[in-house]
């Protein structure tokens, strides 16, 4: 794919946070220039999927 985008999403149960190893991986991805977000709600998932749908 030419000109594509990559985004990583960590989906957690409501109120949960990433484990330390997940935070390490998230930081590694961000250091490489990727967009990473952590979601813990259905509303957040819907917002991301809506935003991605608008870009396609």
Structure description:
The protein is of the alpha+beta class. It has one domain (7-55). The protein contains two helices and two strands. It has helices at residues 20-31, 42-55; strands at 7-11, 35-39. It has a two-stranded parallel sheet with strand order 1-2. The longest helix is centred in the C-terminal third of the chain and has 14 residues, at 42-55.
List the helices and strands and how they pair.
Blueprint: E1 7-11, H1 20-31, E2 35-39, H2 42-55
Parallel strand pairs: 1-2
In short:
The protein is built from 2 helices and 2 strands, in the order E-H-E-H.
User: Which runs of at least 5 residues are low in confidence (pLDDT < 50)?
Assistant: none
Count helical runs: 2
Q: Fraction of residues in helices?
A: 40-55%
Count of individual domains: 1
Strand order of the largest sheet: 1-2
Strand element count: 2
Alpha carbon gap, first and last residue: 13 Å
- Proportion of beta-strand residues: 15-25%
- Specify the biggest β-sheet: 2 strands, parallel
- Evaluate the radius of gyration: 13 Å
Q: Helix and strand succession?
A: EHEH
Determine the structural class based on helices, strands and strand pairing: alpha+beta
What gross morphology would you assign? flat
Mean pLDDT score, rounded? 87
